[in-house]
Predict the structure.
Amino acid sequence: MGSRIDPDKIKKDFPILKNKMNGKPLIYLDSAATSQKPKIVIDTITDYYENYNANIHRGIYKIAETATERYIESKRKLAGFIGAEKFEEIIYVRNTTEAINLVALTWGASNIKKGDRILISEMEHHSNIVPWQMLAKKKGAIIDYIKMDKNGEGLSDGSFLEQIEKEPKLLAITHVSNVLGSINDVKSMTKIAKKNGATVLVDGAQSVPHMPVNVNEIGCDFFALSGHKMLAPTGIGALYGKMDLLDSMEPLFGGGDMIKNVGFDSYTTNDLPWKFEAGTSNIEGGIALGAAVDYLEKIGMQKVREHEKELTVYALEKLNKIKGLKVFGYGKENIEKRGGVISFSLDKIHPHDVSAVFDSFGIAIRAGHHCAMPLVRGIFKVGALSRMSFYIYNNKRDVDVSIDAINSVKNIFKVK
Ligand code: PLP
């Protein structure tokens, strides 16, 4: 590939994008919810079932060995992709939500005590709020929130510094907001948090698919991600954890694979990462996640990021000219702090109506609270927002058609 990515060429790798929706070519602008899958990922799943479907770890026969090797190989690929040192640091789970809950239920269960503080932020997805609320309720711990800045664009540095001085036991923070696209400087935040004695978890659901990420450089203790947002199937995600921390944690589930020995009244746990993967895994999902990583690496994550920046600036310029339309989050002058997610409101028109008109144009966008009720309802004081989110298969034409759809919404609802 050249110095930049060619979304028209990439679109051809995604079978679903050849389809029509409501008689119009499908334009998919909901990748923050889940990404589409390239043919190579779909073929990897078929290949597994057609050629080497077998349970991993135990089989002393060829196809079981192949399945085991490819499953482990996918962990090596993912570890390399996110800058982890070893595949043993990669625990496969269903998704980001499960990764965060695993930490809350294991690390949290033994490390959070009555009166301890857990620091999160006002821009978190519910999956990085509720597990901590559940833990706090059980333990009598306190949840503090890093506040949004006065423009509601990013987090307030002052609020972060104020909160971190209270010496929370844990900082659990999103890398990129799924509502605003705002990118948090998790590397600096981690450094400061660790100086104050906190363990740090980063929710990478919206960063890993869209930009180069290196967990080692960030310096965090835990990092959560979802495969389905980065071209892989649903039902596979990962928790990265530092070896010493993972070693010190109790397993969440008991059963096959997570043990070394079982007697009538005792057991010993398996080595990492298997200690946390009880029972038969999502084998094809793991292997297909490896194929998704290969696909993204071939393109290059810096190019993915540059492409999304270009599309976002292009879209923001057009959207800012539309009367009655308000974009939430950073403006184009702050594009370095913003990913390819654009939430907006359009006069008093309900986002569900906006979404329905987009649908008639063949465009898939999201409307709602985006699983971030404290931010959308608590801070922005709106019931719902419309959200467009970009990925490697989107081009400027997708933005142009979206602008036509917005103008059509205005006409239908007779808004000047
Ligand atoms: N965190 C963020 C920032 C997200 O955007 C999402 C999903 O949209 C999640 C966590 C939860 O991801 P999953 O539903 O795959 O567990």
The chain has 15 helices and 17 strands. The pocket of pyridoxal-5'-phosphate is lined by residues 95-97, 125, 127-128, 174, 178, 203, 205-206, 226 (CB under 6 Å). The chain has a mean pLDDT of 97. Residues 311 and 396 are 6 Å apart (CA to CA).
